[in-house]
Design goal:
Layout (H helix, E strand, L loop, with lengths): L1 H24 L15 E3 L5 E3 H4 L3 E7 L4 H17 L4 E7 L6 H10 L6 E3 L2 H7 L7 E5 L5 E6 L4 H12 L1
Parallel strand pairs: 3-4, 4-5
Antiparallel strand pairs: 1-2, 3-6, 6-7
Length: about 170
C-alpha cells in the first residue's frame, strides 16, 4: 500500500511541470518550460500595446533583427508575404529590433521602404535573455496558438519554409 501511494505521488509530482505548462498553454500563457513562449507586454514603435491578452490564440513568429543586418533585410519580403497571406487566419509576426541604435523614425522609414506591416518592437537585454536569443541575427521563434515553441530559426528564413510551417500551425 505504501509503495503504491509512493509511486502515485512520485508520478503526480513528475508530471506536474508538464501539466502546468499544458494547462497554461491553452491560455497562451505557457510558462515554466523551455518550449513555452515567455509572457509578452510590449509597445510597438507606433505606440500600440501588444501583450498576451491581445495575442491570445495567435500562431506567432517572434523575429529578432536589426536594420544593419543584411540577412535580416534579405528575409523581410518573405516574412511580410507569409504574414499578409495568413494574418486573417490568426498568424502574426512581431519584429523585435535588437542591438540597433537607429532612431524610431529611421526604423519606421526602413520598414516602410520594405513594405513591413507587422508590428515592430524594440527589444532589450531582458527580452533577449527570456527568449534565449544568443548573438546571431536574425533569430526567430515560431510558436503555435497555445504558445508552444514549434521551431527556432537562426539565420534568415526562406519564405517557402516559413509558409510550410505556418500552414501546419493553422490547419
Amino acid at each position: 500500500m505504501k509503495v503504491r501511494l509512493f509511486l502515485a505521488l512520485a508520478f503526480a509530482l513528475a508530471a506536474l511541470p508538464f501539466a502546468a505548462c499544458t494547462q497554461r498553454a491553452a491560455h497562451a500563457d505557457c510558462l515554466g518550460g523551455s518550449d513555452c513562449r515567455p509572457p509578452l507586454a510590449l509597445t510597438t514603435l507606433d505606440g500600440t500595446r501588444l501583450g498576451d491578452d491581445t495575442l491570445h490564440g495567435h500562431a506567432m513568429l517572434v523575429n529578432f533583427w536589426a536594420t544593419w543586418c543584411a540577412p535580416c533585410a534579405k528575409e523581410i519580403p518573405g516574412l511580410q508575404a507569409v504574414y499578409e497571406r495568413h494574418r486573417a487566419q490568426g498568424f502574426t509576426i512581431i519584429g523585435m529590433l535588437a542591438g540597433d541604435e537607429s532612431t524610431d523614425v529611421n526604423v519606421k522609414l526602413f520598414a516602410r521602404a520594405r513594405g513591413v506591416s507587422y508590428p515592430i518592437v524594440r527589444s532589450g537585454p531582458e527580452i533577449e535573455r527570456r527568449f534565449k536569443v544568443g548573438d546571431a541575427l536574425p533569430t526567430s521563434f515560431l510558436y503555435d496558438r497555445s504558445g508552444r515553441l514549434v521551431k527556432r530559426f537562426v539565420g534568415d528564413i526562406e519564405e517557402a519554409e516559413l509558409e510550410a510551417e505556418v500552414r501546419k500551425l493553422l490547419e
